[in-house]
Amino acid sequence: FQQAFTIMDQNRDGFIDKADLRDTFAALGRLNVKNEELEDMVKEAPGPINFTVFLTMFGEKLKGTDPEETILNAFKIFDPEGKGHIKADYIKEMLMTQADRFSQEEIKQMFAAFPPDVSGNLDYKNLCYVITHGEEKD
């Protein structure tokens, strides 16, 4: 998801806008994209499309494909006791130092959308649910 967002954020400002979409289409060989088509795409978002909004929107498109278990299994590596949450500081360190590293801004966006609880834990089960279903559990 991070790589897809980075590819689409052509101007690297942390948001996907009409110009980014036009540039992405151009990079894929589609040069004559209508303004209305781009506007309709941007209007699908509830606001500016940062990484967190992108994840939520992508999750909404994935409904029915059931990737939730795959995402949960990835988080469970960091939760060997199966508590359903992990220390926010720990996941922040892992996301910023391993594989496709998150930037400080992406971490900030993630924690703004999914704040740790008062004990400093991130409820990754809820995060996975929102990513794959596009809305929070009641």
From TrEMBL:
Domain named EF-hand: residues: 1-31, 66-101, 102-137
InterPro entries xrefs: EF-hand-dom_pair, EF_Hand_1_Ca_BS, EF_hand_dom, Myosin_RLC
Keywords of the record: Calcium, Metal-binding, Repeat
Keyword Calcium attached: yes
Keyword Secreted: no
A Pfam family the protein falls into: EF-hand_6
Alphabetized GO MF terms: calcium ion binding
SMART domains: EFh
Alphabetized PANTHER family for the sequence: MYOSIN REGULATORY LIGHT CHAIN 2
Known partners and oligomeric status: Myosin is a hexamer of 2 heavy chains and 4 light chains.
Name of the protein in question: MLRB protein
Organism: Baryphthengus martii
Lineage: Eukaryota, Metazoa, Chordata, Craniata, Vertebrata
Gene: Mlrb
